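Marked as duplicate of an earlier ticket. Keeping the data here for the record.
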Amino acid sequence: MRPRRESERCEGESDPVADDQSTEQTLRRASKEELMNWTHEAVKSIFSLVTGPGSKLNKSDTNSIAMCGQDILAIVAALNLRLAEVELAMASAKLEVTRTGRIMSDEAADASRPRSHASALKLAGNDKRAAIEIKKQEGGPVLAIYPVA
C-alpha cells in the first residue's frame, strides 16, 4: 500500500506502519468474495472521483482510466478462476489420497486374514459378491453344491 499524503491524513491518526500491518492482516483473513467486492468498490470509487464534478480530466483521460479499471477487474476475475481451479485440483487430490488410504487399509486387513474361497469372491472395497463366471469343462461330470437354507 502506498503511504498517505499529508492532505489525506487525519489529525487523530495513528502510526501508518501499524495501519499497513492491520490492513495486510485484514486482507489475509478476507474471503475470495470479500476481496472481489473490495476490488470492485475501489475501482468504482476511483471512477467516481475521475468523473466527479471536481475532476479536471478530459474525456480521453477519463476513458483511459475506465479501461484500466476494467482491466483490473478482469485480472481479479482471472485470478479468482485460477484459484478455483487450484482448489478443485487440491480437493481431487485429497479425495484420491483418501480413496487410496482406504484401499490400502482394506488390503492390509485382507492380508492379515487367511485367504479363503469366500474372501476370493468378494470385490475389493465392496461387500457384494463378485460375479465370477465359472467355465465348464468341455464335457465330463459337473458337481453342484447348493447351501441349505
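See parent ticket for discussion. Residues 50 and 62 are 6 Å apart (CA to CA).
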